[in-house]
Design a protein that fits this description.
- It is a single chain.
- The chain contains four helices and 17 strands.
- By secondary structure, it is an alpha+beta fold.
- α1 packs antiparallel against α2 and α1 runs antiparallel to α3.
- The longest helix is centred in the first third of the chain and has 38 residues.
- The chain starts with a helix and ends in a 9-residue tail after the last strand.
- The mean pLDDT is 88.
Length: 304
């Protein structure tokens, strides 16, 4: 849907811009000449002269929307874009109802339709919260945390992440287990099971994760890499790809299940929660759904 919207936005901007330019360069001058000539004709009433200088409906509207739509295109395509968090896969970092700003130029300036990189500006780093096009269905936007960089070997055992960083030559180290420290138990629940909240240290980034101690890790559900062949619960990140995981480790469809995120799929880096709504289920409606009940002011500005 976001891809279609970008295409429509580009087309509307292009068409309205062409009309605006033609009016500035040609049509506006032609109208002025008609008015000047008509004013020399004594038999023409003032109303008729004024009508000759009026813009057509299409030109008037194109000139009105072009500056606005062009500003939106530049802002949304190259600077910042708002996203809503629709699921709990990034809890406790991001909650359902959070509205975030994504910095579009963090991982390169890209054209809004074909998504080819126009200017290199940076690469994802471990710990970034990144928005990307879901590889099995690129029209859908996903948000996860960057865990593995190109060349890294990732392992997930006993609900813990192990990383063997990419190395060259003989300067290679073994797996490093990401440090975990318990924060609390029971603030969040999954099907009435109390979840454990830990702080995980990913390089220089400390962030909280949720673990469901009652849910086992089943290797048959995980993505099995064929090239290079790896053991169960292990993956080697290919060049130009990234390994992503949700902070809600037992309730996140991420790279453990469907593989890697190509660099071309990256949309941007989540940098800011600009508002957050509390929701509750509407039981009285004929079509039950979620309705906002208030604003979580304490969450505005947060993101780790």
């Amino acid at each position: 849907m976001a891809t279609y919207f970008s295409l429509i936005l580009v087309l509307v901007t292009f068409v309205s811009g062409i009309i605006w330019a033609l009016d500035k360069l040609i049509w506006e001058k032609a109208r002025a000449e008609k008015v000047a000539f008509a004013q020399t004709q004594a038999e023409l009433p003032p109303e008729a002269v004024a009508k000759l200088g009026q813009e057509s409906f299409i030109v008037e509207n194109a000139k009105s929307i072009f500056p606005v739509i062009a500003a939106v295109l530049v802002l949304r395509s190259f600077l910042y874009e708002p996203f809503q968090i629709p699921s709990g896969s990034m809890m406790p970092t991001l909650l359902v109802g959070d509205f975030i700003l994504v910095e579009k130029f963090s991982y390169g300036v890209k054209d809004p339709v074909l998504r080819s990189t126009l200017i290199e500006t940076g690469k994802p780093e471990r710990g970034d919260v990144a928005v990307f096009k879901y590889p099995p269905q690129p029209t859908v936007d996903y948000i996860k945390r960057v865990i593995g960089l190109p060349g890294d070997r990732i392992a997930y055992r006993g609900k813990q992440v192990f990383i063997q960083k990419a190395c060259t030559g003989t300067d290679c180290k073994g797996f490093e287990k990401l440090d975990l420290s318990l924060v609390e138990i029971g603030k969040f629940k999954d099907q009435m099971v109390e979840l454990q909240q830990y702080t995980e240290q990913l390089g220089d980034v400390a962030h909280n994760i949720l673990i469901n101690p009652s849910r086992p890790d089943l290797a048959r559900d995980f993505y099995q890499q064929d090239n290079p062949p790896t053991r169960q619960y292990e993956w080697v990140v290919p060049d130009g790809n990234y390994f992503m995981m949700g902070d809600n480790r037992d309730n996140s469809a991420d790279s453990r299940f469907w593989g890697f995120v190509p660099e071309a799929n990256l949309v941007g880096k989540a940098v800011f929660i600009w508002t957050s709504f509390e929701f509750e289920r509407d039981q009285d409606s004929l079509l039950p759904g979620w309705i906002p009940t208030g604003i979580r002011f304490s969450r505005i500005g947060k993101l780790k």
